[in-house]
Amino acid sequence: MNLxxxxxxxxxxxxxxxxAETAVRVGLNLRKGxxxxxTAPIEALDLARRVTEHAYRAGASLVTxxxxxxxxxxxxxxxxxxxxxxxxxxxxxxxxxxxYKQGAARLAIAGDDPRLLSAQDAxxxxxxxxxxxxxxxPALELISSFAINWTIIAAATPAWARCVFPNDPExxxxxxxxxxxxxxSRVDGSDPVGEWTRHNAALARRTATxxxxxxHALHFKAQGTDxxxxxxxxxxxxxxxxxxxxxxxxxxxxxxxxxxxTPHRERVNGYVRASKPLSYMGALIEDISVRFExxxxxxxxxxxxxxxxxxxxxxxxxxxxLGEVALVPHASPISKSGLLFFNTLFDENxxxxxALGQAYSKCFVNGDRMSETELAARGANRSLIHIDWxxxxxxxxxxxxxxxxxxxxxxxxxxxxx
Length: 418
Ligand code: ZN
Ligand code: ZN
Known about the structure:
Bound molecules: zinc ion
Largest sheet: 8 strands, antiparallel
Shape: globular
Helix content: 25-40%
Number of strands: 20
Structural class: alpha+beta
């Protein structure tokens, strides 16, 4: 510790180090001899270095950190030829997939500027995202199927802090965002590992209750929402810690408050209104409302970012169907903070949500051992995208329906009652 630091700065440094250590020990549960691939925005270099240090202390054989820079991303939109927006660094993603196949773990540090691309041409943004999603999909498949242990944590960056705290000077905004991250990630006490053990146990009890009930569908009711989400056959609820196929128990998201499962791609009906704006790849989509028929979105509206939303829905056939449904109590710590983070890692843990696109094979009983065809036969959706958007609020009721239509109250006024 540097003696010239103010007590507040010294406190921040201790928490930053705890976040790095908890990410390595609980998020990844990194094993001796394991390789680690880290991605981070350049502003999160300090956290990336601390992660690297704790990874080597835990016995990592090699840590490779890949940094991204918003200015370089914007330079592309300003100066690259139009045809260049269908290009992605496939060689890099192939290398990542190769690393995971050879047993490397993966840690992502999120800290993106939620508005980075909001002034850019929606068509170019969507083409670039599409090319990237396609090139990334073999590596992403290994991550989302939990072939390896992985985790995502967050770092406060100036641009992100400005979005969350627009009325504060930059230094103060940054400090407030860091505090919110430390608190939501449960590293602001002296025993974060113990905190996470207790939190994981509580989420495991909740998933066990829902798995015992084997609901056929969930019914969501709130102002602007009357939605029935049929659940996939053999669906399984997940939440908190997961056991990856390499046998390592990891926490894929820090923070996490959700329990989630797989909807049936053809059994979603009704209408739903988003309860928070959705920040997607630098664009902000506000006041989303959509109508589903037989699992597919047949009507989509948004007050802002509607063009981006429509492009997203056109990505592929599965992009207008659901791949995830998640329940989060309205009293979750992130929800209670009252902040809108413009970042899915946080906002999805402040409210019940649904996700467009790809389903998780781990949200099926024995899903790890099922082929694509077997998963599809049970109702799993497939898509290049997976986008969570928030529908929960303090006035939302959720019922579980069995196959005869009998109802059980699951949530009332946003809180679990089951
Ligand atoms: Zn989720
Ligand atoms: Zn999701």
